[in-house]
Write a structure and sequence with these properties.
- With 185 residues, this protein is of the alpha+beta class.
- It is built from three helices and six strands.
- A hairpin with a 4-residue loop joins strand 1 and strand 2.
- It has one domain: Hotdog Thioesterase (Thiol Ester Dehydrase, Chain A, Roll).
- It starts with 49 loop residues before the first strand and ends in a 6-residue tail after the last helix.
- The longest helix has 20 residues.
- Bound molecules: dodecyl-COA.
- Dodecyl-COA binds next to helix 1, strand 3 and strand 6.
- It is a peripheral membrane protein.
- Keywords: Apoptosis, Cell membrane, Cell projection, Cytoplasm, Fatty acid metabolism, Hydrolase, Lipid metabolism, Membrane, Transit peptide.
């Protein structure tokens, strides 16, 4: 991944294999939580991203930019693009490792404007782990798998215990997510 700044992944990162129970290449991932801003189908203003496991340690996601996602007129808001990458990067970490984790650090490089009506084809890759630290990176191409690169991102996710979500979040929403059988705690 050609980002600016230091080497990626950092020294000390170890390669990882997908969890034996991780979904295989070609598996459509669906919605992990119906109210998630990134993928939820009960979140009207959300990004409604769709993701599929790719080859190797990748997840492929698509995000179509609508008028609800504008910053400048006719162009996607950079913060929402960062959100799309947070979702894609979290999906590759969570689905392939089957570990609960949260975003600790997220970097984005915006290389081209992303117009309303366009679709970003995002490929997120699991780069490795160092203890609780999970390193992931992604690039988003405009309107086709082989379109021009519009956004690159990389992130550090940190594994947490499940009580992170019930202690700091909404236990009832967590129960709703478990009951929907869309995530595997
Ligand atoms: C099927 C499922 C689908 C799942 C699909 C999911 C898709 C959804 C994706 C959206 C995900 C999100 O937005 S999550 C929401 C946004 N993120 C958050 O709310 C996280 C808020 N932050 C925190 O709760 C905390 O800071 C933690 C948990 C990240 C870390 O706290 P901690 O548990 O006390 O651990 P701590 O010792 O501080 O950090 C552990 C190690 O990580 C390093 N570390 C921590 N933060 C950073 C950082 N920003 N930059 C560099 N390094 C960091 C530390 O130096 C340390 O390294 P060393 O000493 O070990 O070397």
């Amino acid at each position: 991944m050609k980002n600016s700044g230091e080497a990626w992944p950092p020294e000390g990162t170890e390669p990882v294999a997908a969890h034996p129970d991780a979904p295989g290449p070609g598996t459509k991932l669906g919605v992990h939580f119906s109210e998630c801003f990134g993928c939820g189908d009960e979140q009207d203003g959300g990004l409604h991203m769709e993701s599929t496991v790719g080859d190797g340690l990748t997840v492929k996601s698509q995000f179509t930019v609508t008028e609800a996602h504008q910053g400048a007129p006719g162009l996607a808001h950079g913060g929402l693009l960062a959100c799309a990458f947070d979702e894609a990067l979290g999906s590759v970490a969570g689905n392939l490792l089957r570990l609960p984790a949260v975003t600790g650090r997220l970097e984005t490089d915006f290389r081209r404007p992303v117009p309303v009506g366009s679709t970003l084809f995002i490929t997120a890759t699991l780069d490795g782990m160092d203890g609780r630290k999970i390193y992931v990176s992604a690039e988003g191409r405009l309107d086709a798998e082989d379109g021009p690169v519009a956004v690159r991102a990389r992130a550090l996710f940190v594994t947490v215990e499940f009580d992170h979500f019930t202690t700091h979040g909404d236990p009832n929403a967590w129960k709703k997510m478990r009951d929907s059988n869309r995530v595997n705690p």
